[in-house]
Each structure stands twice: as C-alpha cells, then as structure tokens.
What we know:
Helix content is 73%, strand content 0%. It is mostly helical and 147 residues long. It has one domain (9-146).
Amino acid sequence: TFLAVDLQLIAQGGTMIWPMIALSNIAQGSAAVTMMFLNRKDEKLKSLSLSSAISAWLGVTEPALFGVNLRFMYPFYGALIGSALAAVYSTLTGVLANSIGIGGLPAFLAIQPKFWINYIIAMLIAFIVPIIATYVLNKSNLIKNKK
C-alpha cells in the first residue's frame, strides 16, 4: 500500500519508509529465533522457529509472523517493541533508501551509502531488542500462568 508513496519519496531524494519495513522483518525474525531457544525441548516448534526466522531475516516474514509470533503473541509484542525502537533510531538519524526491494538483512543494499552506519546500528537494535523483549515477556507470561 505504500508503494506509490515510496516511489514519490524516491523521486524526491529517498524514502524513509522502506528502511522501517526492512527493520520490521529483522525484528520478526529475531523474535522467532528467540522462541527457538525458549522451546528447546519441542522439536517441531524449534524447527519451525529457526526456519521462519531465517526466512524473515531474508525478507519473507509470513512464516515467522503467522507460524510462531502471533501464535504465542508475546514474541509478536517483542518484535513490535524492537521494530519500533529501530524505526525511531532510523528516522531520527535521517536514514533514506534509494529504492525498494528485498527486506531483512539484505535491505542495506537499498540504503543510501552515507546512511549505512546508522542503518547498521538500527539493524542491530532490530536484532537485539526483540530477543530481550521476547525473553522478558516470556518470563512474565510464565509468572502470570503460574498464578
């Protein structure tokens, strides 16, 4: 739905929307991979979490989003927190993309080279924060379920 807006922004010098979309893919993958570690004993969920995390990091979020994160909800919230913080950093530092394309980790190729360092920092935020947030939300979910 943002394609027309992205293309207009690119024509005016660069889009700030595409970097946020790509950061969201990374965050969804990180939340899914956290589920793999949290559910080490469930082989089926462990396998699904890893494969969907890899696909999310490469730009296809549907397996992670619908197969893992929304199924348990707290990984989805963890991904939202990480994606939001990464998007805020990306926007505040003025990161712009020259084009739209594949999301996830390869998306840095669409970013204007002068913004690569800031975008890589945003990628690290989108990678690390969902792991921490999903872990914390899992622990609070376990405590809530014990009561």
